[in-house]
């Protein structure tokens, strides 16, 4: 523990006297540290917080969960439910960072670079690309078009980079837009008929915004935009973190228990662990129940209420609330039947 | 020079607008994602219905109509029973240990629903305007016609409705049925008994000469005595739409039952084997002259369910 600390201390004291010391380098190192701490630390803290929420705030139940849910399971469970949120945060930072960077570069060098710009500067391109890929496969199709302006902004893909001739450039843009329109036309008609105006706007406007979103922005906008978006991204993370913290770590099941001959009871809850004697169930309404293994008659996996769809739109038979991954999954196992026992409400 | 700076200005204004709009859209998307679902779901309807929380569902079925609802070796069997099992399992009551079968006769069906003895009636229950004032119907799940069954010895003598009017022939039917009203409309004097089975027994004992009822019920008795009877096709005007009876005070349950039937209808239409088709092939299918398909249920509500995201093709 102490060994690595010593050279660090030495470095801190010797650096000012060393020739060629650059405060920018140190600042970049510190920004890099804060960035990676956030990327690794936030999921770790969330995973532990979730256990407490899952246990219904009870200390003993939390300890039971801690004892039975391995760190790997916990992290994997967290990633499956939070990948969407994580990638959203990263995409927002990189897209805003790139737009602000190109705007700041036109300002006098004395202007302090906003936080997102510094983060975007330090991040290797492969990491940015990986974040976008993760967003592409985990975002719901309905919100996926928003990734287009974000991607264009993050990699500064102005229309000018498509082709040097103006006419050819326009032609390529029109063709790309036409392809997008062809892909979504049936969905747009449906959305119009169902009066889903938000869905309509979410599908139509992002590709048009992508044409102009790269910046640079006027000097007067940079400072307020940087502060507002920093606060907004933070607020979004907190706001969106709430459902992620409350999403269960363990799968929801309904277990049919026959405690005395002929009397069966359905217990809705999460299986914490099973040993030779008992099945430990964390009930959905709260409380832990130890059910003797011999009394268990049946068990089924159930969907949770949050999985109910909000929209009735499909893009080429992919439901708009599915991500590409989920949509592909449904094609691999197309028939899904909700088991009758899952309708048990109590 | 001026031209370039003007273009620059337009570009930066456009960029500002685009960034602002993108952020607004992202915020709107975030809000939409956290919104409560606006469409009613199967679960919401279950919560509204009176069966919410009941350990068992009480279903009224016939026990004396072969192929439709009968007791075979102590177990309930028949097309109506199979449909009832499917609907019950859709409502969360899977398996016979979760269903309380209540035997209802033709005339008991409405009072049983009104009196709360049963939650559903699946028993060759024809949907009529008169009955819709007293109970609710989900369906139809079957379309049948009224026919007449005669013993083989009379098959050449009774061929038309006119023949039925002859006082020499004693026509029998069950009380409280649509058939009774239809016969009266055609001036056919009918002897009314409790069950169609009593008519068939009476014919075999020589007390009656013909029995009129739904084709499905008659086919059931024909399956019991294939050599003794014959079904005569007669032009009674109306077709009978069989529906599932639900207490009139529980529209949520009616909606759920209609939705369950619609699920089966859609599965059948898409060429997948549907619960309806399985029930039909196991019971009525081999005994009816014409091939039947599940009719489209009426007044089906628009509900969302967990399997809504599944691919449609």
Automatic annotation (TrEMBL), chain A:
Record's keyword annotation contains Transmembrane: yes
Segments passing through the bilayer: 35-53, 85-104, 124-154, 166-185, 197-219, 231-250
Keywords: Membrane, Transmembrane, Transmembrane helix
Protein name (Swiss-Prot/TrEMBL): Uncharacterized protein
Organism for this UniProt entry: Micromonospora matsumotoense
Taxonomic lineage: Bacteria, Bacillati, Actinomycetota, Actinomycetes, Micromonosporales
TrEMBL record, chain B:
Family: Belongs to the bacterial solute-binding protein 3 family.
Transmembrane segments: none
Domain Solute-binding protein family 3/N-terminal stretches: 56-280
Coiled-coil residues: none
GO CC annotations on file: extracellular region; outer membrane-bounded periplasmic space
The keyword Lipid biosynthesis is annotated on this UniProt entry: no
InterPro entries noted in UniProt: Bact_solute-bind_prot3, Solute-binding_3/MltF_N
Source organism: Micromonospora matsumotoense
Protein name per UniProt: Amino acid ABC transporter substrate-binding protein, PAAT family
SMART domains assigned to the protein according to its UniProt record, in alphabetical order: PBPb
Keywords tagged on the record: Signal, Transport
Signal peptide: 1-28
Pfam (any one): SBP_bac_3
A GO BP annotation: amino acid transport
């Amino acid at each position: 523990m102490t060994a690595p600390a010593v050279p660090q201390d030495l470095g801190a004291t010797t650096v000012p006297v060393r020739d060629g010391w650059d405060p920018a380098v140190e600042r970049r190192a510190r920004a890099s540290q804060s960035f990676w701490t956030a990327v690794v630390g936030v999921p770790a803290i969330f995973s532990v917080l979730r256990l407490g929420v899952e246990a219904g705030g009870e200390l003993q139940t939390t300890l039971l969960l801690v004892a039975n849910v391995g760190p790997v399971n916990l992290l994997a469970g967290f990633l499956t439910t939070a990948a969407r949120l994580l990638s959203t945060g990263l995409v927002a930072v990189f897209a805003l960072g790139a737009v602000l960077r190109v705007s700041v570069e036109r300002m006098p060098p004395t202007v302090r670079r906003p936080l997102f710009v510094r983060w975007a500067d330090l991040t290797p391109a492969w990491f940015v690309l990986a974040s976008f890929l993760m967003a592409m496969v985990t975002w719901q199709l309905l919100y996926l078009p928003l990734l287009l302006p974000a991607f264009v902004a993050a990699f500064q893909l102005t229309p000018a980079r498509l082709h040097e001739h103006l006419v050819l450039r326009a032609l390529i843009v029109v063709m790309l837009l036409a392809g997008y329109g062809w892909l979504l036309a049936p969905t747009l008609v449906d959305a119009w008929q169902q009066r889903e105006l938000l869905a309509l706007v979410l599908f139509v406007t992002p590709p048009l915004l992508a044409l102009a979103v790269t910046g640079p922005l006027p000097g007067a906008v940079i400072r307020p935009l940087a502060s507002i978006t920093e606060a907004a991204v933070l607020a979004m993370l907190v706001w969106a973190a709430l459902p992620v913290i409350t999403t269960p770590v363990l799968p929801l099941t309904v277990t049919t228990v026959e405690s005395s001959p002929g009397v069966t009871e359905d217990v809705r809850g999460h299986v914490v662990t099973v040993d030779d004697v008992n099945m430990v169930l964390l009930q959905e309404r709260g409380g832990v129940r130890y059910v003797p293994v011999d009394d268990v008659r049946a068990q089924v996996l159930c969907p949770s209420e949050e999985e109910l769809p909000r929209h009735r739109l499909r893009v080429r038979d992919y439901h708009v609330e599915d991500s590409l991954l989920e949509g592909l999954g449904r094609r691999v196992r197309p028939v899904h039947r909700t088991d009758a026992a899952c309708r048990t409400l109590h | 020079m001026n031209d370039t700076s003007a273009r620059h200005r337009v570009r930066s204004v456009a960029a500002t607008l685009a960034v602002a709009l993108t952020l607004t859209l992202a915020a709107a998307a975030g809000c939409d994602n956290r919104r409560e679902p606006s469409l009613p779901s199967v679960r919401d309807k279950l919560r509204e219905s009176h069966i919410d929380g009941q350990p068992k569902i009480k279903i009224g079925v016939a026990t004396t109509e072969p192929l439709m609802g009968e007791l075979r070796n102590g177990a309930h069997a028949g097309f109506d029973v199979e449909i009832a099992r499917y609907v019950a399992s859709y409502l969360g009551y899977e398996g016979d240990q979760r269903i309380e079968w209540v035997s209802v006769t033709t005339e008991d069906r409405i009072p049983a629903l009104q009196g709360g003895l049963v939650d559903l009636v699946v028993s060759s229950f024809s949907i009529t305007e008169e009955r819709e004032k007293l109970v609710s119907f989900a369906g139809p799940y079957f379309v049948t016609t009224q026919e007449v069954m005669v013993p083989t010895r009379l098959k050449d003598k009774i061929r038309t409705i006119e023949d039925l009017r002859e006082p020499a022939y004693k026509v029998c039917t069950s009380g409280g049925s649509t058939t009774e009203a239809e016969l009266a409309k055609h001036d056919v004097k009918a002897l009314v008994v409790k069950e169609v089975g009593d008519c068939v027994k009476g014919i075999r004992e020589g007390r009656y000469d013909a029995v009129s009822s739904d084709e499905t019920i008659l086919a059931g008795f024909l399956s019991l005595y294939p050599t003794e009877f014959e079904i005569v096709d007669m032009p009674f005007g109306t077709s009978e739409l069989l529906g599932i009876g639900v207490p009139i005070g529980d529209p949520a349950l009616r909606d759920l039952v209609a939705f369950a039937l619609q699920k089966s209808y859609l599965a059948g239409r898409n060429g997948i084997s549907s619960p309806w088709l399985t029930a039909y092939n196991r019971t009525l299918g081999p005994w009816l002259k014409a091939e039947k398909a599940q009719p489209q249920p009426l007044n089906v509500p628009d509900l969302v369910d967990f399997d809504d995201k599944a691919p449609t093709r």
